[in-house]
Amino acid sequence: MSMTNVIEAEGLTKWYGSRRGIVEVDFAVAEGEVFGFLGPNGAGKTTTIRLLLGFLRPSAGHAAIFGLDCWAASSTVHTRLAYVSSEPGYLGELTAGEQLDYLGALRGLPRGAWRPMAERLELDPTVHIRKLSHGNRQKIGVVHAFMGDEPLLLMDEPTSGLDPLMQREFLALVAEARAAGRTVFLSSHNLPEVERACDRVGIIREGRLANVSTVGQLLGEHWRSVNLVLEAPPTPGTFELPNVEVVAITGREVHLMVRGDVNPLLARIASLAVRDVAITTPDIEDIFLRLYSAPATQAPAEVTR
């Protein structure tokens, strides 16, 4: 393993009998990097994470974290990471605070180590877990991950159920972890979240890693929709710019598509009297439809998360 890589997977494959989980997945995550792992539900994201955690044994290939085999040395690997599950299971008779103290004790943390994070995420520690909403149960997992100082954070769709304000706070926590030199592996199907948080992105489709690139490269390859309402109809040729396609102009309303560098378009918009503007970023499903519409190299049986 490279000294600069925290996670490495080579030929990582998992079959569930005749059902395919993931096939020949290769990627590396550098120290201090925030790496997004994108794909629709059922693509293989959770299977990959369970292999990294040593919860599953690979059918072929291998994965290593900090140079340690994820299956053979899983107990040692676990001491150097914190994990957020997409489907956390807790002891319902405990309060949120009691559960976090219990989880903290397993990691050698003092009682109440969770309080600063719980306050930031507005988690009431006195409520019994069985009475918590899905979003508040998810907050427990996020607090649990960030209340320690492990060098690696593995998170499987951690913002599922969080409201927009708490999602923004989560992104702030990720940025702080990165600034502190921690490494983050973030599995998600939320492209805007990954765009804001991650340095690089791996895209998994039907169990196979289809692409690894920086966020800028990923988005630069795709069209964004721009809708404008101007104070007056634009003059002909106003939007004849590089990487810009005029879809429709109806009076003062303009619909454009832009790909790659948006700065020329933004400069042109700034020179106009604009009443309203809306820029739509493609979601992950749209990217899959545009980039990977070709049939998979191997027809799947049943794809397991």
Our measurement of the CA-to-CA distance between the termini, rounded to an integer number of angstroms, reads: 27 Å
Helix content: 25-40%
> How big a fraction of the residues is strand?
25-35%
How many domains make up the coordinates?
A: 2
Number of helices: 10
Strand order of the largest sheet: 6-7-8-3-9-10
* Order of H and E elements: EEEHEEHEHHHEHEHEEHEEEHEH
Q: Tell me about the largest β-sheet.
A: 6 strands, mixed
Radius of gyration: 22 Å
What's the CATH H-level superfamily name of the largest domain? P-loop containing nucleotide triphosphate hydrolases
- Assembly state of the chains shown: single chain
